Amino acid sequence: MSKEPISSIRVGRRRFLKGAGVVGAALPVAGGLVAAACYSEPETAKSEGSPAASGATPAGGGSTGGVTAQVDWQKIDNDHKKGVEDFLKNQATPLTRGKGMVALQPRLEGDVKVFDLTMDEVEWEVAPGVIEKGRGYNNMIPGPTIRVTEGDKVKINVKNNLTESSAVHWHGIRLPNKMDGVPYVTQDPIEPGKTFTYEFQLRNQGSHMYHSHHNSSDQVNRGMLGAFIVEPKDKSTYPKYDKEAILIMNDTALGFTLNGKSFPATDALVAKKGEKLLVRWMNEGMQYHPMHLHGLSMTVFQRDGYPINPPYECDTIDVPPGNRFDCIIDCNEPGLWAFHCHVLSHAESPAGFFGLVTVLVIQE
Ligand SMILES: [Cu+2]
């Protein structure tokens, strides 16, 4: 069974729709998406003298009735529709440049896994045409994903290419104090142009993170973060799953992002009916994000790498800053299931969805 991260899966628009049972079938939830392709203007828009009929730009809000109000609701509908269409296109061909969370391959020095990280100033395209002054590791946001196994020895060389000092904190990982990455508490800051090497052995499994711990409300917010997955050495009691997705939330400096991108540039989660999907939630932002899955539930079995006994079931998981939750989604109901932050101002505006929104696609 494939353990390929969902984030690496690209599906063509037709395959995406077909797989979801949309093309040539009648999934009510997807009907709106199909209809979008052959959308025609409602009759009301064509009434004599309406701004839409004359090609005029609709007036702004404020009107409570008449022609202007009609144009306003149509603009809202059209903007929402375009956002969803763009999201679908993005699954076939990315609408933004740059992709974070590429798996970082180590090289072996004896029995030590050696990783190289750079800290970089990055021009980052968060949403189509929206380019922000970010900061990242290895020129990407989030930084590359580090994946090791409990018991592994690692050495991580970190070169600072920033215009200011920094340091890397290994969030959630049990390690010797001097490797904890907090300037003036456990080490000197890594100054611009300098390199620092972290060395430790992994004692605890779990979904962990790494991030800046210096000027961090700026540096982490601008993208200096990544996933650090420690697989358990003994998987006999670990839940079985077919696919995995890591979802890192961030907010403020680059806006509301999932894995460094804002809707419609976010990746869909794609699974086949009957598969079990492991989702590792991580919040690197400064706000709470209750992530809500439509139509299905999540079974939460681990928090911050520590088991939850017994696991609990929910459809909205509140992920506070710094927290990581691991859950399994039993993908037993085909369709396109909206998956979004339920602080609605993090997810939708009159111009449509944005920010912390994706879709779980369950194919027949
Ligand atoms: Cu939120």
Q: What does this entry look like structurally?
A:
With 364 residues, this protein is mainly beta. Helix content is 14%, strand content 37%. The chain is built from 5 helices and 22 strands. It has helices at 13-19, 28-37, 51-54, 66-92, 216-219, and strands spanning 107-109, 112-127, 130-137, 146-149, 153-160, 168-171, 195-201, 206-212, 225-231, 243-250, 257-258, 269-272, 276-283, 289-293, 298-303, 306-314, 316-319, 324-330, 335-341, 348-349, 352-353, 357-363. The strands form 5 sheets. Strands 11-10-13-18-15-16 form a 6-stranded mixed β-sheet, with no helix packed on it. Strands 1, 2, 3, 5 and 7 form a 5-stranded mixed β-sheet that branches. It has a 5-stranded mixed β-sheet with strand order 12-22-19-14-17, covered by helices on one side. The radius of gyration is 22 Å and the shape is globular. It binds copper (II) ion.
